[in-house]
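Posting this for the archive.
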Amino acid sequence: MHPSLTIGKTERSFCYRGPMATTRTPARERLLSVASGLFYREGIRAVGVERILAEVPTTRATFYRHFPSRDDLVVAYLRGVDTRIRADLRAAVDGAASPSAALRAIGDAVADSLATPGFRGCAFLNAGAEFPDPDHPIHRAVLDHRAWYAATITGLFAQIFDTDAERPDPRHAAQHFIIMRDGAMAGAQLDGAADVGDVLRRGVDGLLNVVHPTDLDGRPIDPRRSR
């Protein structure tokens, strides 16, 4: 990792704090694991408590002892996804020699994820579409994750622009990056993961070359990016 490359103030937790029990017992982890898979594969609204209990050998009382409501279970599912994404992004940043290399690594990781077995898009975009009410705890959990992600990407672009005399607004570049990422996550199942992944890689390269053409890291361009 480059000594000056940081994520800064974006390492924050979800703002939502529900009444959910936090003790990690085998029963709780089993319920959460099974429910998480069902929510991602089948959709959150399509999976009720009965469906989950049919898959997990436990009682309704045990379920509600760990998750006072189904919404608490969904928020716990999203927290788990958030934790994994934070770890993946941290690994990309830690392994990068510069902010632009970190952004390319993040774009590469997203492109690679499109072709993983069972891919069903972005868990947060999916959840936000199913729960559009901005005051709903599930929607708030989505917004919290999105705010952290946007702050992280913005911070990386801010480091790229740090030596730029014109000092462009890093938020604008971050918005472009996130829109490309969201489009790839939404379109991969329809337009083909390989093609969409290649387009995303080229898009990230193009964005970086436009906003800061002198910061190319000396990295050879992947042939897939220049087609």
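The chain has two domains: 8-18+77-225, 21-67. The longest helix spans residues 70-94.
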